[in-house]
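Fill in residues.
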């Protein structure tokens, strides 16, 4: 069965910062989907630059099957050095998975990713590697439909320190929370937003650190066909509508004229609904 790696994320900026020091990048190339969450050193503009460069470089190189050691070397050579701290530093988590659910996860200094499987959160089996004096943890992935991986920056496990909680929201608390709230039909972005929203509450709406949650969810492919605008030649209306309706999966028709063309072909009537559920 062909699977799809659905991904979604959301970020909270540190209080009084216009830019987030975390960055998520995702790309689909061939059979593989690559997702990177990077957390730049510090906060604000400097951190944003570090995280943006890290996520862009890693996403591009990993998607093109470049060896991890070369990827890390490219980051070390590229990141600008902070004048205050004298180092160029960004943490990262990388997921690289194909349509059969097989791939790998690499993590460097971010909180450990959470693996949701069979309705329960757990840990990955991680192997330790050293590249350029940096310890990187690697996990071989063999995912099945319904699995969820949650990536996070350290702003998640620091949520509530000195305010609602004495020592922050430890990783086990995060896992217990996800066990309670994740539902089988919940989208990846919904999972990310729920966890980030809870962190926002623990920070009493004033995040003490950049906080980012990225989730990826393995699900069956769900084809959708979209028809936008009528054919250039009116005589081709029926030809294109027939072709459109023959495609697999759900159908979406956009535009008044286009909807009338499809309705005429189906011998149906178009009804307007002016209610706004949201």
């Amino acid at each position: 069965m062909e699977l799809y790696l659905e991904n979604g994320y959301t970020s909270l900026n540190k209080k009084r910062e216009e830019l987030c020091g975390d960055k998520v990048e995702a790309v689909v190339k061939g059979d593989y989907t690559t997702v990177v969450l990077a957390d730049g050193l510090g906060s604000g503009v400097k951190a944003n630059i570090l995280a943006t460069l890290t996520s862009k470089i890693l996403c591009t190189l990993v998607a093109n099957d470049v060896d991890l050691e070369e990827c890390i070397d490219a980051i070390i050579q590229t990141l600008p050095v902070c004048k205050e701290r004298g180092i160029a530093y960004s943490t990262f988590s990388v997921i690289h998975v194909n349509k059969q659910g097989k791939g790998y996860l690499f993590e460097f200094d971010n909180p450990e990713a959470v693996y949701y499987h069979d309705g329960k959160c757990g840990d990955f089996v991680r192997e330790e590697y050293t590249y350029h004096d940096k310890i990187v943890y690697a996990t071989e992935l063999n995912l099945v439909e319904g699995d969820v991986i949650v990536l996070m920056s350290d702003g998640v496990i620091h949520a509530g320190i000195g305010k609602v909680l004495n020592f922050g929201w430890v990783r086990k608390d995060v896992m217990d929370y996800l066990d309670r709230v994740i539902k089988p039909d919940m989208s990846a972005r919904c999972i990310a937003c729920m966890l980030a929203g809870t962190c926002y509450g623990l920070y009493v709406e004033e995040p003490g650190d950049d906080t980012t949650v990225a989730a990826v969810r393995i699900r069956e492919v769900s084809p959708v066909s979209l028809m936008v605008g009528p054919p250039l030649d009116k005589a081709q209306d029926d030809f294109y509508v027939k072709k459109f309706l023959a495609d697999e999966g759900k159908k979406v028709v956009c535009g008044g004229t286009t909807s009338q063309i499809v309705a005429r072909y189906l011998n149906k009537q178009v009804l307007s609904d002016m209610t706004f559920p949201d």
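Helices lie at 44-63, 68-78, 154-157, 171-181, 188-202, 237-246, 256-266.
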